[in-house]
Design brief:
The complex is a heterodimer of chains A (274) and B (181). Chain A has 274 residues and is mainly beta. In chain A, a hairpin with a 2-residue loop joins β8 and β9. The mean pLDDT of chain A is 89. A 5-stranded mixed sheet of chain B has the order 1-2-3-4-5. The mean pLDDT of chain B is 92. The relative contact order of chain B is 0.14. The longest helix of chain B has 22 residues. Chain B is 32% helix and 34% strand. In chain B, a hairpin with a 5-residue loop joins β2 and β3. The chains are: A mainly beta (274), B alpha+beta (181). At the A-B interface, β4, β5, β8, β10 and β12 of A face α3, α4, β2, β3 and β4 of B.
């Protein structure tokens, strides 16, 4: 009777204990670094009710798990790769949680050079010097060394005084820079008479800056027209290095014209009927 | 008769209003300037800054950098336990965000918590337009808190590239150079 009681108590004690799974055994202890989308981790486990997640430096990932007998196969995938560094794989079964630490890496990838320019727009009238900042990034957002131990470089570049939009070293739009034309150096004025002999056609141009670039489209030009005691000022815009103004021949015969852009003023031009 | 016409008119107006309300698209996204980011607001790691760039920085620029750097890490710590980058969108450049978004999968949260305790920022480059900053975070200190309450402290040295976009500094790229217990 006593033995039966002891047996009953023992069986009761055992039945009250929480079921604990045995810690999965990592079968590749030599692996310190895991390459995603490439390496497979193998664990010896009990049961087939495991779930897993990998906490990487920048994001939690969910590996695919499969079973071969009592082996659990873990494949870590990330379509865009990962930020490389220390990672922790957590395997869970019922209430049991087990952690495994390793270094996570991407398969070898090509790096892209980022070339940032400041200022992005250089005006030839001011400084032609531009700050260049360089760094390299792989397609997963990891910085790569430019030289051993060097991740960033800074240069001061002298830009050629030729206007236009220029791609930088890597050719990406974000790295492009612009050289804008400066102020006009001198204004050349001339005129023609239209075919019907009713109008003077005044032409200012070609308008160049000090580096022989055509000045910016949309630059405002003022024509000052004098005839006797009458003086008029007419505003116009520059396009493709020229600006035009039509004046009535009857009204403005023998008038004197000057053109001005900012502080630069042309010589006086006298217009008269042929 | 007039009464029926009046009722029919009211019915038509009712149908019109109901159909208009259905057509309205509810935009639940709060404007950027009205958002309160509790994660970033409550992030106060110890940050020390050394300027090795060719540009003299003002106190305001440095404070903004420190504040945003703490915000970036608060969100990186959230992402350490989570796969969804959407709530952290404002702290990453479009390029970095799209990389994280491409890896997003629904799933349970990571059980290990990461806290950043301190950073020592050595500024390497600062663009003259104030839109790019590259730095080395030497000896950043992190605590990894496990579900059983145990804590593992890790010291990391990192290269970080930030771009100023929108209203704050955003993470564009990083490299964990060294990680030590």
């Amino acid at each position: 009777m006593k033995k039966l009681l002891v047996l009953f108590l023992l069986s009761h004690l055992v039945s009250c204990q929480e079921k604990r799974t045995i810690r999965p055994v990592f079968l590749q202890p030599e692996i310190q670094t895991v390459r995603i989308n490439q390496d497979q981790l193998i664990f010896k486990v009990q049961g087939e009710n495991w779930s897993g997640l990998v906490q990487t430096p920048a994001q939690t990932l969910y590996p695919s798990l499969s079973y071969q007998g009592n082996l659990l196969l873990v494949n870590i995938t990330a379509p865009n790769g990962v930020i490389e560094g220390p990672a922790i794989l957590t395997l869970q079964s019922d209430n049991d949680t087990h952690h495994f630490s390793f270094e996570i890496k991407n398969p070898t990838q090509k790096v892209e050079l980022v070339d940032l320019r400041s200022p992005k727009t250089v005006n030839v009238d001011s400084s032609l010097y531009q700050q260049q900042i360089l760094y390299s990034v792989d397609p997963s957002g990891n910085l790569a060394e430019l030289a051993p131990g060097v991740f960033f470089k800074e240069n001061q570049l002298k830009v050629q005084p030729k206007t236009g939009t220029f791609p930088s070293l890597n050719g990406s739009p974000i790295s492009s820079f612009y050289v804008a034309p400066g102020t006009v150096e001198s204004i050349h004025l001339d005129y023609t008479i239209d075919a019907s002999h009713t109008k003077f056609q005044i032409m200012a141009g070609p308008l160049y800056d000090q580096n022989q670039n055509l000045i910016s489209d949309g630059t405002q030009i003022s024509f000052l027209i004098k005839k006797g005691l009458r003086t008029e000022r007419i505003e116009a815009l520059v396009r493709a290095g020229y600006s035009y103004l039509d004046l009535s021949m009857n009204e403005w015969n023998q008038a004197q014209i000057q053109a001005a852009i900012a502080h630069v003023v042309s010589q006086e031009l006298k217009i008269q009927k042929p | 008769m007039t009464r029926y016409l009046y009722l029919a008119f009211l019915l038509l107006v009712g149908i019109l209003l109901a159909s208009l309300s259905k057509l309205q698209v509810k935009n639940e996204a709060v404007p950027y300037f009205l958002r309160y980011d509790s994660l970033a607001a409550n992030a106060h790691p110890l940050i020390q800054v050394s300027n090795e760039t060719s540009v003299d920085l003002t106190k305001i620029q440095l404070e903004k950098l420190e504040q945003d750097y703490a915000g970036i890490w608060a969100h990186l710590n959230r992402m350490f336990q989570n796969s969804n980058p959407k709530p952290s969108q404002e702290w990453f450049t479009e390029r970095f965000y799209s990389l994280l978004a491409g890896n997003f999968q629904e799933g349970q949260e990571g059980v290990i918590q990461r806290k950043d305790l301190s950073h020592h920022l050595i500024l390497k480059t600062w663009s003259k337009d104030g839109l790019s900053c590259n730095l080395i975070d030497s000896l950043a200190r992190f605590d990894y808190v496990y579900p059983d309450g145990s804590i593992q402290t890790i010291h990391q040295s990192m290269a970080i590239s930030l771009l100023f976009q929108g209203d704050n500094w955003r993470l564009d790229a990083l490299k964990i150079i060294e990680s030590q217990n």
